[in-house]
Specification:
Number of helices: 6
Pfam families: DUF4234
Helix content: 55-70%
Number of strands: 0
Keywords: Membrane, Transmembrane, Transmembrane helix
Order of helices and strands: HHHHHH
Structural class: mainly alpha
Transmembrane segments: 12-29, 49-71
Distance between the termini: 16 Å
Low-confidence stretches: none
Protein name: DUF4234 domain-containing protein
Organism: Glycomyces luteolus
Strand content: under 5%
């Protein structure tokens, strides 16, 4: 099983800015893999590698496939929260709007992921 990690939401955002988006691609792939680890039976899970490929080459489909993958990722996060025993607090609209505010959607998504990691580790009796 993929190791569940707590990451700093602000750190994810800063590293993405400093690396001109390269860390953001790595982070998206790791996040998708972590979602699959928590909720492997969700048919809407997006593969981390395909997510990155479509983000890089989305212009081929006029960015239709990356947009579809974005909404699949958001739905997977909600399903992951339910699978972890949490009430789903993730809001796709908020995450989408934050895309246009200097990419701060990464902070929002990571903060939601940290809630899941804490819940899963508490359920397993592992200190977060």
């Amino acid at each position: 099983m993929e190791e569940l990690k707590i990451r700093s939401p602000f750190g994810v955002w800063i590293l993405t800015l400093v690396s001109f988006g390269i860390y953001g691609l790595f982070w998206y792939a790791k996040t998708a893999t972590q979602i699959k680890a928590v909720n492997p039976n969700n048919p809407g899970n997006v593969s981390g590698s395909s997510l990155v490929v479509w983000m890089l080459f989305g212009f081929i489909t006029l960015y239709i496939v990356p947009i579809i993958n974005w909404f699949k990722l958001c739905a997977s996060i909600k399903a992951e929260q339910q699978a972890a025993g949490l009430a789903p607090t993730f809001n796709t609209g908020v995450a989408t709007l934050l895309c246009f505010v200097a990419g701060t959607n990464l902070c929002y998504i990571q903060a939601q992921q940290n809630l899941v990691v804490n819940a899963v580790k508490a359920r397993q009796g592992v200190p977060a």
